[in-house]
Amino acid sequence: MPKLLDSFTLALLSTVALASLLPCSGAAAQAFNLITNLAIGLLFFLHGAKLSREAVLAGIGHWRLHLTVLACTFALFPILGLLLKPVLTPLVTPELYLGVLYLCILPSTVQSSIAFTSMAQGNVPAAICSATASNLLGIFITPLLVGWLVVSHGGVGQGMGSALDIVYQLLLPFIAGQIARRWIGRWVDRHKAMLKYVDQGSILLVVYTAFSAAVIGGLWRQTPPAALAGLLLVNVILLGLLLGLTTLAGRKLGFNREDQITILFCGSKKSLASGVPMAKVLFAGHAIGAIVLPLMLFHQIQLMVCALLAQRFRQQRQLAGRMQEKSPLA
């Protein structure tokens, strides 16, 4: 049975504790953000160099998986946020529920979805396509859903900038890795184990920088303890439901194990990196603390839970591989 607290989970908990006690700010925060961006760029470059052209084309053409992920992100999440209102509103303030509803209509994460899919040995090419498509489409879908479900307020002034950030930070390194594969592909294939450290290192950097910003922004001061406890419970309920429903959808729709893992990690998460800049534009002139607080907490919870799940999937696959090697029929 896999251990609940392995070395990476302990590292994740230590990173959260460090960010809570010693959050980075000012020049240090800028330096960490730069290092994080470089680590993410390296991650996508190595994934590009690792994946064959055939695997990438297969990921792009996996339209059933992509539609499933998008349906979970932009349809199932908002529907649950609306249907659960009678249950959620007694636990949080009306302002915080507005933030929960905003959380439900955001796109999926990109780097952590792909990193967790890679750690769990899921369909990485499909994860890259699904997560990137979610963020690109979210630039247009999220403002429309905000105007329809949350408030009558528009504006997507940062949309093009967000799209260009995705292209610069994720797609270009991946394409560069694909181009460089002809020269470094064999070396990368011989050192695939190093991708695990790049995956985990990029996640730890994202956790530290994101949690530092949340703590400096008054994460623990903006709500009373009772409302904060209620918000934590609301986020756990939402994440638990989505993890269960995405798992069920992957099985019922006949996807294989690798695709089920991709649907689980890409369809159940929400992007802090996209959500906070969008909130500043979509709710311009309003105090956005209560609106982004549910997202900040959800982001940390999803990273912790998905890290545990990814490690368990990896350990299960390794155990199955060892058992198959020992089998006399293998």
UniProtKB/TrEMBL annotation:
The keyword Transit peptide does not apply. This is Bile acid:sodium symporter family protein. Residues 1-19 form the signal peptide. It holds the Pfam family SBF_like. The keyword Translocase does not apply. PANTHER family: SODIUM_BILE ACID COTRANSPORTER 7 (PTHR18640:SF5), SOLUTE CARRIER FAMILY 10 MEMBER 7 (PTHR18640). Keywords: Membrane, Signal, Transmembrane, Transmembrane helix. It comes from the Bacteria. The chain crosses the membrane at residues 29-46, 67-84, 96-116, 128-151, 201-220, 226-249, 288-310.
